[in-house]
Fold:
Amino acid sequence: MSGLSQTMSAEQKQVLSAAADDLLLLARLHDREPDMEMLQSLSSTPARDWFALQVKGEGMEQGLGLLDDGLSDLSPLRVDELWVDYADLYLTFGKRIAPNESYWLTEDHIERQDPMFDVRGWYAHYALAAKDWRMRPDDHLVHEIEFIATLLRKENEVAIRDAGRFMDGHLLLWSADFLGGAAQRAQTPFYAGLALVTEACLLAVRSLVEGITGEPRRQHIKVQPPSADASKTAPFLPGAEPSW
Structure:
């Protein structure tokens, strides 16, 4: 059987590597609040130039503009607001959304459930593991994005197909809910923009994998947890309601 590693062009391999770089940058920005050194480095370059892949679309354009706006003022007060916003979105449940798959795919919004153990199985297949699942579960947004980047760097048929399948069966089942909620509820334009840019990039990477492998996206049935307010888990749609 001939694999993609034999049939991929040098250009395709280069694009996959660039996509992995973009994903790792996004993972870093979601991983922890940026320190002043990183903020200054980011602000020295337009957000569009942070990424190798030139992703198009309304969400991407809006998100890039918000990132630039969010870095236009690095006064101590604004930086403090940025760090508080990060904590509310990722650490304290202050926005009533969670960056973990199990929260979105279980009826009672409970973390560290079956989706996490399924994700752990994917990691183990590639001899990978989350550093400390009690501190940050395996199905955290950062871990899942880093896993996709790792698969793209392998440049072989199985790994690239698995990247697409993992996105279909896991990350893309819930990323729009979390990132859409973050885009709507963030108090700073930086994190609203990061959410929009991340979802646009994830969809672009999935399309890239489909184009290279020829394997179309798989449709998975998503369990919809009951909610008194459906808008709280609805994917972000630019212009659908007030936002940055």
Notes: The domain at 6-232 is CATH 1.10.3480.10 (TorD-like). The two ends are 50 Å apart (CA to CA). DSSP finds ten helices and no strands in the chain. The longest helix spans residues 157-185.
